[in-house]
Amino acid sequence: MALIVVGLNHKTAPVDIRERITFGPDIIVAALKGLKKLPGVHETVILSTCNRTEVYCAADERARSAIQRWVGDFHGVDAALTIPYLYTHMDAKAVCHLQRVSSGLDSLVLGEPQILGQVKTAFNTAADAGTSGKLLGRLFQHTFSVAKQVRTDTSIGNSPVSVAFAAVSLAKQIFSDLHKQTALLIGAGETIELAARHLHQQGLTSMIIANRTVARAAHLAAQFDGEAIGIDQLSEHIARADIIISSTASPIPVLGKGTVESALKRRRHQPIFMVDIAVPRDIEAEVGELDDVYLYTVDDLEEVIEENRRSRLEAAEQAEEIISAQTEEFLAWLRAQDASHVIRDCRQQAEAQRDEVLERALRMIDNGKPPEEALRFLANTLTNKLLHAPSSQLRQAAADGQADLLEAANTLFKLSKPRR
Fold first, then answer.
1. Could you name the CATH architecture of 2-159?
2. Which end of the chain has the smaller Cβ count within 10 Å, N or C?
3. Active-site residue 50, yes or no?
4. Angle at CA 12, nearest 5°, toward 11 and 16?
5. What torsion do the CA atoms of 99, 162, 18, 43 make, to the nearest 10 degrees?
6. Residue 406, Cα to own-chain centre: how many angstroms?
7. What's the CA gap between 178 and 16, in Å, rounded?
């Protein structure tokens, strides 16, 4: 049985293809079971995120083409349209690929941590649906351990590489305990949403979202139990804010020096950390001259991000070494499974021969034979039965000049070196 991965991601397929090949919560279970019904497919897991869709199968190798066609067929998309964008990995490459994905090495943002949670969810969904089994179960559990080792033994997740993440990381340096702070986020676009998400994950619970369209601010604030206000209300709320992050499309600043100065007086000069991500600026440059204000611009953050990108690339090299070693470890386990049925058959045959000879020896005792005679019969007969077939095969191997088989027997039975 082979391990097969078929998928597409942000590197191989444009967004209009990716958005047509996704598996949402409403269809994922049906998809898993449908995929498993393909001839030769025994186990399935499907990973579907905004940047990738991948199907993981334990299957006969001949099923590969059917799996590739199924990816498009399930969504009613012509396979001729999807197949050019698909990648396929088998066995060792499949194991390595899953470990790289789960460790964030194949992500749009190198080392991003969210993907591991998404992989775990994908596996749990398959387990609940009954479509994963021993092989994929072992693969995914091993992969989770590898991803944890990568996070523990390298610094790949320690350095922010997005503007929003960098802003929140700087806030943590100034306020070590974010759950006691209040954040004011100005704007409601993607960057502000990401900053809000990072702040929430770091334990911050008091959040104000300010936007020209209050309804948009309210929609975002509701996700984090926050409060929504209009930008025209900023001056009333700045004094409440320990952290201000701004990213709007305004052509002129939305925060001036005078407004911030008044807020600082009401705060009795408790410090405010500010990040102005907007271009052009949302916060007047003169605000940075005020005591008790820590103002960073997007340029300041870009310097941090570029340095951290280099740090992550170095960590990624270390992660690749871990993954290479752990891939080989899993493959060793996989190879051992190939021998399990041979070992099982061998033991069953030996046990059947043992039971047959033991029954004959017991009958000898019942018929009045001395126990010593029955034991000698048992030992001699069982030895002959166990060694008859191997001995016959080895004699034939010697006659045929199969030195490799003789050497294998020497290793298998831990014998002395064969005589020349």
1. 2-Layer Sandwich (3.30)
2. C
3. yes
4. 100
5. 20
6. 45
7. 39
Alpha helices in 130-242 (DSSP H): 134-153, 163-174, 190-201, 214-222, 234-237
Is the alpha carbon torsion for 315, 318, 322, 328 positive or negative?
positive
pLDDT band at 176 (very low <50, low <70, confident <90, very high): confident
Tell me the pLDDT band of 57, cut-offs 50, 70 and 90.
very high
Angstrom distance (rounded) from CA 418 to CA 413: 12
Pairing status of strand 87-90 against strand 2-9: antiparallel
Angle at 7 between CA 325 and CA 96, to 5 degrees: 0
How far, rounded to the nearest angstrom, does the alpha carbon of residue 206 sit from its chain's CA centroid? 31
- Amino acid letter, 106: D
CATH 3.30.460.30 maps onto the chain at 2-159
Of the listed ranges 215-229, 340-354, 357-371, the least confidently predicted one is 340-354
Task: Name the CATH topology of 163-301.
Answer: Rossmann fold (3.40.50)
Amino acid at 360: R
Between CA 225 and CA 222, with CA 255 as vertex, the angle to 5 degrees is 10
Q: Residues spanned by CATH 3.40.50.720 within the chain?
A: 163-301
CB 276 within 8 A of CB 296: yes
Do residues 302 and 133 make contact, with C-beta atoms less than 8 angstroms apart? no
Q: How many helices and strands, by DSSP H and E, does the chain display?
A: 15, 10
